[in-house]
Each structure stands twice: as C-alpha cells, then as structure tokens.
UniProtKB/TrEMBL annotation:
<protein>
    <submittedName>
        <fullName>Maleylpyruvate isomerase family mycothiol-dependent enzyme</fullName>
    </submittedName>
</protein>
<dbReference type="InterPro" id="IPR024344">
    <property type="entry name" value="MDMPI_metal-binding"/>
</dbReference>
<dbReference type="GO" id="GO:0016853">
    <property type="term" value="F:isomerase activity"/>
</dbReference>
<dbReference type="InterPro" id="IPR010872">
    <property type="entry name" value="MDMPI_C-term_domain"/>
</dbReference>
<dbReference type="Pfam" id="PF11716">
    <property type="entry name" value="MDMPI_N"/>
</dbReference>
<dbReference type="GO" id="GO:0046872">
    <property type="term" value="F:metal ion binding"/>
</dbReference>
<feature type="domain" description="MDMPI C-terminal">
    <location>
        <begin position="171"/>
        <end position="265"/>
    </location>
</feature>
<dbReference type="InterPro" id="IPR034660">
    <property type="entry name" value="DinB/YfiT-like"/>
</dbReference>
<dbReference type="Pfam" id="PF07398">
    <property type="entry name" value="MDMPI_C"/>
</dbReference>
<keyword id="KW-0413">Isomerase</keyword>
<feature type="domain" description="Mycothiol-dependent maleylpyruvate isomerase metal-binding">
    <location>
        <begin position="15"/>
        <end position="156"/>
    </location>
</feature>
<dbReference type="InterPro" id="IPR017517">
    <property type="entry name" value="Maleyloyr_isom"/>
</dbReference>
<keyword id="KW-0670">Pyruvate</keyword>
Length: 277
C-alpha cells in the first residue's frame, strides 16, 4: 500500500484492470492478437503494447529509438506519432513475448506503486504528449487507472469477452469523463446561456448528472436534478463510454440514445461527445 490512502483507490483500480487484461490475453492464439479494436489502427496486440509502453516510461525506462513506417494511416499528428512508437516496436512480437513482458511490467510497476513515498499533490512528469508537462501524482494515477480500464474494455469488445463494466476502474472512468462534459455542452455544442442539460445513464453503472451553462456561458456539472432541462440525453453506460472515448460516432449507436427536448442541441452535444484525444 502507498503511504497516502487517498491514492490507494486508483492503485487498486489500475491493479484490477491490469490483472484482468493479463488474464484475457494469456490464452490468446496468434490470430486473436491481431483482432482489430475500436482504437483506430490498433489491434489487440497494439493496445497491450501501448499499456506496456506507458508503464515502462513511468518506471523510468528510456523510450525506444525507432523510426515509424510512413504508411501508418492513423498517425496524423505529433501526438499520435509519439504514442505509436511504443506500439510499433512490438508489432512483430509473438503472443508469449507479449504476455511475458506484460507480466514483468506489472510486477515492476506494482512494486513501484507499493513503495510510493511521494504526496498526492507532488508534481510528476506527464508521460502523455498532450496537456501540461507536469501533473500531480494523484492526477497521474487517476489517469492511469482510467486509461487502463478503458483499454480493458477495448480488448473485451474485440475479443467478445465482456466483464468488469462496473468495476472500480469504471467508477474512475465515469468521474474522468464527466469532468469533460461542461466543455462539451457549453463550448463545443454552444449551448445557450442559462441552459440545463440532463445526462441519464442506465445499465450496470447508473448515474444522472446535470450540466448547467451560466449567464456567462460557463459550464458546470452536478448531481442535482433539473426541473426544466433544455434537453435530456438517455443512454446506457457502455454507449456513453464508447461515445465519450471516441470509439464510435453517433450514427453507429443512434438507436441506443434517446434525445428529449431540443433535438438540435442534443445532436450537437452527442456529435462532440468525445473528450479523450
């Protein structure tokens, strides 16, 4: 356990997802490693490579010196190019090589987290190539728990093995994704001032939140109900997750989303729903 109990829920969520991923991929055949996921251009192997690579960087391992092929169509900017390095260097690794490296990385990283002495608000490097160069340790661990669980779900969908949809990592993911809603509603969808939008999510992880746009056009989110929302969006948790993480576009899941009230505003919100890079 870390020295700071406030960090432990994120460590526990990360651990549960990493162990679940290891259990998922250990028995895979070589063909199953190549199955496509909803992450553009990434197979099951690529998603696992991404996770291994980020955790290795957090362990202080040097980034690979590697030149990407020019024909990787989904690499379109410096952010995706940065993220692709750790993936492409492992593209020809066998299943046993992948599972062995994953297991060893989890052991090393678990030991590092168990011995963590830094405080939650201590600044640490941000290993992803977007956002600030430094983040708090608490933020770093929160995002690792979020990212790992989201990719666990990517792998489960690709392999047809659903599970852990309401685990500890799911609750972390819910909070991270909800934090992006005010920008989606107020800025991206350009909801009018003094507008309320209700998001009603059902399924294994149920919640209802209200996004309010104040007189200055600034958005906020809370758990209080709104008696007269401009629009109410109702959808299940898996659909919310896939839309908010940019795994699918609205037209692919439109039948799973109910829009009540201002149809134009509701559609604008759903078309800008993705909050992950």
């Amino acid at each position: 356990m870390t020295d700071h109990p406030s960090l432990q829920p994120y460590v526990d969520a990360w651990t549960q997802s990493m162990e679940a991923i290891s259990e998922l991929v250990t028995p895979l055949t070589e063909g199953e490693w190549n199955r496509p996921t909803e992450c553009p251009g990434w197979s099951v192997r690529d998603v696992v490579s991404h996770l291994i690579g980020l955790e290795c960087e957090l362990l202080g391992d040097p980034r690979p010196i590697h030149t990407l092929p020019r024909d990787i169509y989904h690499v379109r900017d410096e952010v995706s190019r940065h993220m692709e390095i750790q993936v492409d260097v492992r593209r020809h690794h066998t299943g046993p090589e992948m599972t062995s490296e994953l297991e060893y990385t989890v052991i090393r990283r678990s030991r590092q987290l168990r011995d963590e002495k830094r405080a939650p608000d201590d600044e640490v490097p941000n290993v992803v190539p977007f956002g600030p160069k430094k983040v708090t340790l608490e933020r770093q661990l929160m995002i690792r728990a979020f990212d790992t669980w989201v990719h666990e779900q990517d792998l489960r969908r690709a392999l047809g093995k659903p599970g852990n949809i309401d685990s500890a990592g799911a609750h972390v993911a819910r909070d991270v994704l909800l934090a992006g809603l005010p920008k989606v509603v107020a800025k991206d969808a350009e909801a009018p001032a003094n507008t309320a939008v209700v998001i009603d999510v059902g399924g294994p992880l149920e919640f209802m939140r209200t996004v309010r746009v104040d007189a200055d056009g600034k958005g906020s989110v809370d758990g209080s109900p709104s008696l007269g929302p401009a629009v109410t969006l109702s959808l299940d948790w898996d659909t919310y997750l896939r839309l908010a993480c940019g795994r699918v576009r609205l037209d692919a899941v439109a039948e799973r989303v109910k829009v009540e009230g201002d149809q134009k505003l509701g559609t604008a919100i759903l078309e800008h729903f993705a909050v992950t890079p």
